[in-house]
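Table S5 (text form). Sequence records supplied for joint modeling of the two-component complex.
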Amino acid sequence: EADIYQTPRYLVIGTGKKITLECSQTMGHDKMYWYQQDPGMELHLIHYSYGVNSTEKGDLSSESTVSRIRTEHFPLTLESARPSHTSQYLCASSDAASRTGDKSSYNEQFFGPGTRLTVL
Amino acid sequence: KNQVEQSPQSLIILEGKNCTLQCNYTVSPFSNLRWYKQDTGRGPVSLTIMTFSENTKSNGRYTATLDADTKQSSLHITASQLSDSASYICVVSDRGSTLGRLYFGRGTQLTVWP
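The corresponding C-alpha coordinate record, covering 234 residues in total, follows.
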Protein backbone atom coordinates (compact mmCIF):
# COMPACT_ATOMS: atom_id res chain seq x y z
CA GLU A 1 0.00 0.00 0.00
CA ALA A 2 1.31 3.44 -0.97
CA ASP A 3 2.46 5.77 1.80
CA ILE A 4 0.63 8.89 0.80
CA TYR A 5 -1.72 10.66 3.16
CA GLN A 6 -4.35 13.34 2.89
CA THR A 7 -6.09 15.32 5.59
CA PRO A 8 -8.80 16.02 6.26
CA ARG A 9 -10.72 13.19 4.62
CA TYR A 10 -13.96 15.17 4.75
CA LEU A 11 -14.48 18.91 5.10
CA VAL A 12 -17.70 20.90 5.17
CA ILE A 13 -17.14 24.63 5.24
CA GLY A 14 -18.95 27.89 4.62
CA THR A 15 -18.49 30.19 1.65
CA GLY A 16 -15.60 32.63 1.93
CA LYS A 17 -13.47 30.57 4.29
CA LYS A 18 -9.81 29.89 3.64
CA ILE A 19 -8.91 26.21 3.59
CA THR A 20 -5.77 24.13 3.17
CA LEU A 21 -5.85 20.51 2.09
CA GLU A 22 -2.81 18.58 3.27
CA CYS A 23 -0.92 15.92 1.33
CA SER A 24 2.18 14.09 2.50
CA GLN A 25 4.15 11.16 1.12
CA THR A 26 6.94 9.17 2.73
CA MET A 27 8.28 7.53 -0.44
CA GLY A 28 10.73 10.29 -1.31
CA HIS A 29 9.01 10.86 -4.66
CA ASP A 30 10.03 13.95 -6.61
CA LYS A 31 6.77 14.47 -8.46
CA MET A 32 3.48 15.27 -6.81
CA TYR A 33 0.06 16.04 -8.25
CA TRP A 34 -3.36 17.36 -7.32
CA TYR A 35 -6.45 16.13 -9.13
CA GLN A 36 -10.07 17.18 -8.91
CA GLN A 37 -12.79 14.58 -9.42
CA ASP A 38 -16.54 15.06 -9.55
CA PRO A 39 -18.90 12.06 -9.19
CA GLY A 40 -18.96 9.88 -12.30
CA MET A 41 -16.37 12.03 -14.01
CA GLU A 42 -12.70 11.60 -14.87
CA LEU A 43 -9.86 12.96 -12.79
CA HIS A 44 -8.61 16.36 -13.87
CA LEU A 45 -5.07 17.53 -13.14
CA ILE A 46 -5.11 20.94 -11.44
CA HIS A 47 -1.53 21.25 -10.10
CA TYR A 48 1.74 19.38 -10.24
CA SER A 49 5.28 19.70 -8.98
CA TYR A 50 8.58 18.30 -10.28
CA GLY A 51 10.27 18.84 -6.93
CA VAL A 52 10.98 21.35 -4.18
CA ASN A 53 10.16 24.94 -5.17
CA SER A 54 8.58 23.74 -8.43
CA THR A 55 4.84 24.13 -9.02
CA GLU A 56 2.85 24.20 -12.23
CA LYS A 57 -0.80 24.54 -13.18
CA GLY A 58 -2.47 21.51 -14.69
CA ASP A 59 -5.02 21.05 -17.45
CA LEU A 60 -8.04 22.22 -15.48
CA SER A 61 -8.09 25.83 -14.38
CA SER A 62 -8.37 26.12 -10.63
CA GLU A 63 -8.54 29.01 -8.19
CA SER A 64 -6.49 27.01 -5.72
CA THR A 65 -2.76 27.44 -5.13
CA VAL A 66 -0.07 24.99 -4.06
CA SER A 67 3.37 25.10 -2.54
CA ARG A 68 6.28 22.64 -2.40
CA ILE A 69 8.70 23.70 0.32
CA ARG A 70 9.58 20.15 1.33
CA THR A 71 9.80 17.03 -0.83
CA GLU A 72 7.23 15.14 1.20
CA HIS A 73 4.62 17.87 1.54
CA PHE A 74 2.34 19.39 -1.14
CA PRO A 75 -0.51 21.40 0.39
CA LEU A 76 -3.34 22.93 -1.63
CA THR A 77 -4.96 26.19 -0.51
CA LEU A 78 -8.21 27.91 -1.39
CA GLU A 79 -8.20 31.53 -0.20
CA SER A 80 -11.96 31.94 -0.39
CA ALA A 81 -14.03 28.79 -0.78
CA ARG A 82 -17.16 28.83 -2.93
CA PRO A 83 -19.87 26.22 -3.58
CA SER A 84 -18.35 25.64 -7.05
CA HIS A 85 -15.26 24.27 -5.29
CA THR A 86 -17.28 21.35 -3.91
CA SER A 87 -15.54 18.24 -5.22
CA GLN A 88 -13.18 15.41 -4.34
CA TYR A 89 -9.49 16.35 -4.32
CA LEU A 90 -6.94 13.60 -4.86
CA CYS A 91 -3.21 13.90 -4.27
CA ALA A 92 -0.68 11.62 -5.97
CA SER A 93 3.07 11.16 -6.19
CA SER A 94 5.54 9.39 -8.46
CA ASP A 95 9.24 8.85 -9.04
CA ALA A 96 10.97 10.96 -11.68
CA ALA A 97 10.48 9.39 -15.10
CA SER A 98 13.48 7.96 -16.90
CA ARG A 99 13.78 7.02 -20.54
CA THR A 100 15.87 4.29 -22.09
CA GLY A 101 15.61 4.10 -25.85
CA ASP A 102 11.95 3.91 -26.84
CA LYS A 103 10.77 2.62 -23.51
CA SER A 104 9.59 5.07 -20.91
CA SER A 105 9.57 4.30 -17.24
CA TYR A 106 6.19 3.43 -15.86
CA ASN A 107 6.11 6.66 -13.83
CA GLU A 108 3.37 5.09 -11.77
CA GLN A 109 1.38 7.53 -9.69
CA PHE A 110 0.33 6.50 -6.20
CA PHE A 111 -2.84 8.15 -4.94
CA GLY A 112 -3.89 9.28 -1.52
CA PRO A 113 -7.38 8.55 -0.17
CA GLY A 114 -8.72 11.95 -1.18
CA THR A 115 -10.45 14.85 0.55
CA ARG A 116 -14.16 15.27 0.00
CA LEU A 117 -14.79 19.05 0.16
CA THR A 118 -18.27 20.52 0.50
CA VAL A 119 -18.70 24.29 0.46
CA LEU A 120 -22.07 25.52 1.65
CA LYS B 1 -7.30 15.55 -28.92
CA ASN B 2 -6.08 12.90 -26.47
CA GLN B 3 -9.05 11.03 -25.07
CA VAL B 4 -9.91 7.86 -23.19
CA GLU B 5 -13.41 6.40 -23.54
CA GLN B 6 -14.74 3.56 -21.39
CA SER B 7 -17.76 1.31 -21.69
CA PRO B 8 -20.11 0.42 -20.25
CA GLN B 9 -20.63 3.38 -17.93
CA SER B 10 -22.06 1.03 -15.30
CA LEU B 11 -22.49 -2.71 -14.92
CA ILE B 12 -24.29 -4.97 -12.47
CA ILE B 13 -23.39 -8.64 -12.21
CA LEU B 14 -24.03 -11.48 -9.80
CA GLU B 15 -21.31 -12.76 -7.53
CA GLY B 16 -19.24 -15.47 -9.18
CA LYS B 17 -19.88 -14.26 -12.72
CA ASN B 18 -17.27 -12.92 -15.14
CA CYS B 19 -17.30 -9.54 -16.83
CA THR B 20 -15.29 -7.51 -19.34
CA LEU B 21 -14.78 -3.77 -19.32
CA GLN B 22 -13.70 -1.85 -22.43
CA CYS B 23 -11.39 1.09 -23.02
CA ASN B 24 -10.69 2.95 -26.28
CA TYR B 25 -8.08 5.68 -26.47
CA THR B 26 -6.66 8.21 -28.89
CA VAL B 27 -3.61 9.24 -26.83
CA SER B 28 -0.50 9.70 -28.91
CA PRO B 29 2.39 9.13 -28.64
CA PHE B 30 1.45 6.17 -26.49
CA SER B 31 3.57 5.14 -23.51
CA ASN B 32 1.55 2.79 -21.37
CA LEU B 33 -1.96 1.91 -20.29
CA ARG B 34 -3.08 1.19 -16.76
CA TRP B 35 -6.21 -0.04 -15.14
CA TYR B 36 -7.03 1.36 -11.71
CA LYS B 37 -9.63 0.27 -9.19
CA GLN B 38 -11.24 3.05 -7.18
CA ASP B 39 -13.40 2.17 -4.21
CA THR B 40 -16.03 4.73 -3.22
CA GLY B 41 -14.43 7.59 -1.31
CA ARG B 42 -10.90 6.31 -1.89
CA GLY B 43 -8.04 7.05 -4.23
CA PRO B 44 -7.38 4.85 -7.31
CA VAL B 45 -5.16 1.81 -6.87
CA SER B 46 -3.22 0.34 -9.79
CA LEU B 47 -4.26 -3.14 -11.01
CA THR B 48 -2.18 -3.61 -14.17
CA ILE B 49 0.09 -1.63 -16.43
CA MET B 50 1.02 -2.47 -20.03
CA THR B 51 3.47 -0.93 -22.43
CA PHE B 52 3.28 -0.91 -26.24
CA SER B 53 4.86 -4.34 -26.59
CA GLU B 54 2.62 -6.12 -24.11
CA ASN B 55 -0.79 -7.43 -25.13
CA THR B 56 -1.90 -9.16 -21.95
CA LYS B 57 -1.21 -8.82 -18.23
CA SER B 58 -2.78 -10.65 -15.31
CA ASN B 59 -3.11 -9.76 -11.65
CA GLY B 60 -4.98 -12.51 -9.84
CA ARG B 61 -8.56 -12.55 -11.13
CA TYR B 62 -7.93 -9.46 -13.25
CA THR B 63 -6.63 -9.85 -16.82
CA ALA B 64 -5.99 -6.84 -19.03
CA THR B 65 -5.46 -6.94 -22.77
CA LEU B 66 -4.06 -4.29 -25.07
CA ASP B 67 -4.32 -3.92 -28.84
CA ALA B 68 -2.04 -1.00 -29.66
CA ASP B 69 -3.00 -1.12 -33.34
CA THR B 70 -6.69 -0.55 -32.72
CA LYS B 71 -5.99 1.44 -29.51
CA GLN B 72 -8.27 -0.73 -27.43
CA SER B 73 -7.91 -2.38 -24.07
CA SER B 74 -10.12 -4.60 -21.96
CA LEU B 75 -10.18 -5.65 -18.34
CA HIS B 76 -11.61 -9.10 -17.65
CA ILE B 77 -12.67 -10.01 -14.13
CA THR B 78 -13.25 -13.67 -13.41
CA ALA B 79 -15.28 -15.21 -10.59
CA SER B 80 -16.39 -11.80 -9.32
CA GLN B 81 -16.60 -11.09 -5.60
CA LEU B 82 -18.59 -8.54 -3.64
CA SER B 83 -15.34 -6.66 -2.97
CA ASP B 84 -14.94 -6.11 -6.71
CA SER B 85 -17.70 -3.48 -6.52
CA ALA B 86 -15.87 -0.28 -7.45
CA SER B 87 -15.12 2.07 -10.30
CA TYR B 88 -12.54 0.75 -12.79
CA ILE B 89 -10.60 3.48 -14.51
CA CYS B 90 -8.56 3.18 -17.69
CA VAL B 91 -5.56 5.54 -17.72
CA VAL B 92 -3.26 6.15 -20.66
CA SER B 93 0.13 7.83 -20.42
CA ASP B 94 1.84 9.65 -23.26
CA ARG B 95 5.60 9.79 -23.78
CA GLY B 96 5.60 13.23 -25.29
CA SER B 97 6.60 15.00 -22.09
CA THR B 98 8.83 14.45 -19.10
CA LEU B 99 5.77 14.73 -16.90
CA GLY B 100 4.37 11.47 -18.30
CA ARG B 101 0.93 13.05 -18.54
CA LEU B 102 -1.96 10.73 -17.66
CA TYR B 103 -5.28 10.74 -19.46
CA PHE B 104 -8.16 9.32 -17.46
CA GLY B 105 -11.36 7.65 -18.57
CA ARG B 106 -14.54 8.30 -16.61
CA GLY B 107 -14.54 4.76 -15.32
CA THR B 108 -16.96 1.85 -15.33
CA GLN B 109 -18.96 1.54 -12.14
CA LEU B 110 -19.17 -2.18 -11.35
CA THR B 111 -21.65 -3.49 -8.80
CA VAL B 112 -21.51 -7.12 -7.74
CA TRP B 113 -24.68 -8.47 -6.15
CA PRO B 114 -24.81 -11.52 -3.89
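Note: Chain B touches chain A at residues 4, 9, 31-32, 34, 41-46, 49, 51, 89, 93, 95, 98-102, 104-107, 109 (CB under 8 Å).
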